[in-house]
Amino acid sequence: MSASAALSPDAQGSAARVSRTKKPRASKVRVQHKGAILAFVLPFGILFGLFYLVPIGYAVYESLLVIKREGTFGAATEVFGGFTQYILVFQNGPFWQSIGRVLMFGVVQVPVMLGLALLFALLLDSPLLRGKRFFRLAFFVPYAVPGVIAAIMWGYLYSPNLSPFRAVTENINFLSADLVLWSIANVVTWVYVGYNMLIIYSALLAIPTELYEAARLDGAGQLRIAWSVKIPLIMPAIVLTAIFSIIGTLQLLAEPQVFRSFSSAVTSTFTPNLTVYSTSSIPNFNLAAAFSVVLALATFILSFTFLKFTQRKETT
Amino acid sequence: MSAMKTDSERPARRVRPVQSKNPHAPRAPRESPLARGGALIVMGVFTLYFLVPIWWLLVAASKSRSQFTTTNPLWFADFSLFENIGNLVAYRDGVYLKWMLNSALYAGGGALIGTIIAGMCGYALAKYNFPGRELIFNVVLGGVLVPATALALPLFLIFSQISLTNTFWSVFLPSLVSPFGVYLARIYASASVPDELIEAARLDGAGEVRTFFTVSVRMMVPALVTVFLFQFVAIWNNFFLPLIMLRDETLFPVTLGLYAWNSQVNQIPVLRDYVLIGALLSIIPLIIIFLLLQRFWRNGLSAGSVK
């Protein structure tokens, strides 16, 4: 946002400069290079419209319909049902339980993951550590493992009879109803810590070193520099990673879906997206669409609120 | 003394040459051996956490069935990795290779085209002034916050209206759209493509589109490579869309295929071996791509997160 504000006077300047050298072709139109702009924007614009905006609109439309049957064996027709599906959504216990489950998951997993990512990024950036290239790569490798594959792999690692750590898994059942949510949290953490670490580390690299040379001369140690100089400066990057993590948490699907074949404790309504999927395979598309809409709205509101909340905190 | 060594280890192209140029900075003595040791232990322990699962996968994939449970799970027995790969590839007329090929097409083609159109759009938003520019940018920014999984079901409903579910296109076309790519391309273009350069190209008589593809694109390479990579990973990892769209096994990407095998392990035990070997093979392309393009995406990443 700040970038766009900073940009516009600049771009206006360039437009003004252009007008001096401009051919008289499009003299009536104020916007210059209209054809080029269209050529640049339209391909993305059309696809964005078709595969983002239309689906959102269509989901809302479908969610407002109900199926009506003429008698028991009559043909089913979709008719307008107002907020009928939404009333069903709000009365649906398992759906709200699944929302509660992923919220609980997020409250624990996101801070742990980002805390670790921040710690590693700060260590990579400090003069304390040697072999930085190696650690940076080693920690990032799991990001190259797709969520489905990571879940399959960890499913075997947790298994009581196939795991290489049977001494542990024979005694602690990581796939039990009590623990499986946190076992999945571990898979997600394993995949994404390195990715978040790199985003934060890149932000750290962009800080001019003079800023902490001064602090160092004043006698500040590494810990003090990290806390008082570095962390405040990289707050925007941390907020960015937090927002993407919140979105990811509410959308959990692949990992729990894979875990269904390892653990009967993962039900078909374990996460909101699993609820959407299982509702759509009944098939009850109208209710599934209503679930989707509510979930997308919840995600949007949550990440937007978080963004606003952290921005306010920064300014005060 | 080891602190000096740390400094010289930093690659020369790093963003902060100031640090090593300043030998008078009184920093070497302050880092205690205790802090150093602590840092190394923390990083060492977590290296194990991150790499042991992959190591186990490699070892497990290299074993024959009989040795899988009877030998040390974290060390090699008779090395039959290539034999196992041969069996995997031969299974069901090479359906696994077909899945890898599909993934490469979905992710490679989708990311390539997606990056080009996102780059053009971001460039136009950065370098031209036109009505509705901010509106478009804000809508796209909102799109970044809309999770792709939320779109999977409505996309399925739309595609089924036009009988296009269970086709290559039903997974490929939606993958082309990357709002985050537009966002990154815009930020990067406004920071790194000088107006003077575009101006000069105009004076030379080059058209706008040609200027973009011959001059501006070069300046945007780090951002475009980053967009390509993350789009590639997003499509390669995408699960919900293919899960909901595809029924025909020969259209599956490798993630969906391995998922399908893994859920049949109890009925067909031989699939367990294939799932593990297939999982190992499926992560190798991504690791190679990340290693090859490291130099680019690290720069691009910092551009996106700083703003």
Descriptive overview:
The complex is a heterodimer of chains A (316) and B (307). Chain A has a single domain, classed as MetI-like fold (Orthogonal Bundle). Helices cover 71% and strands 3% of the residues of chain A. Chain A has 14 helices and 2 strands. In chain A, strands 1-2 form a two-stranded antiparallel sheet. By secondary structure, chain B is mainly alpha-helical. Chain B folds into 3 domains: 31 residues, no CATH class; 40 residues, no CATH class; 217 residues, MetI-like (MetI-like fold, Orthogonal Bundle). The longest helix of chain B has 33 residues. Classes of the chains: A mainly alpha (316), B mainly alpha (307).
Secondary structure elements and pairings:
The complex is a heterodimer of chains A (316) and B (307).
Chain A lengths: L1 H20 L12 H30 L1 E5 L6 E5 L3 H8 L1 H33 L6 H9 L6 H12 L7 H4 L10 H26 L4 H8 L4 H12 L1 H16 L3 H6 L12 H9 L4 H31 L1
Antiparallel strand pairs in A: 1-2
Chain B lengths: L1 H8 L8 H4 L11 H29 L3 H6 L10 H10 L4 H33 L5 H13 L2 H14 L6 H5 L6 H14 L2 H9 L4 H12 L1 H17 L2 H6 L8 H9 L8 H22 L1 H13 L1
Helix pairs in contact in B: 3-16, 5-16, 6-10, 6-13, 7-10, 10-13, 11-12, 13-17, 15-16
Main sheet strand line-up of chain A = 1-2
Number of domain modules of chain A: 1
CATH topology of the largest domain in chain B: MetI-like fold
Q: Mind telling me which CATH architecture of chain A this is?
A: Orthogonal Bundle
Mean pLDDT of chain B: 85
Number of helices of chain A: 14
Report on the biggest sheet of chain A: 2 strands, antiparallel
Question: Could you tell me how far the N terminus lies from the C terminus of chain B, measured between alpha carbons in angstroms?
Answer: 37 Å
Structural class of chain B: mainly alpha
CATH class of chain A: Mainly Alpha
Shape of chain A: globular
Report the uncertain regions of chain A: 1-29
Say how many strands of chain A there are.
2
| CATH-derived architecture of the largest domain in chain B | Orthogonal Bundle
Oligomer: heterodimer
Q: Into which percent range does the helicity of residues of chain B fall?
A: over 70%
Share of β-strand residues of chain A: under 5%
The CATH homologous superfamily name of chain A equals MetI-like
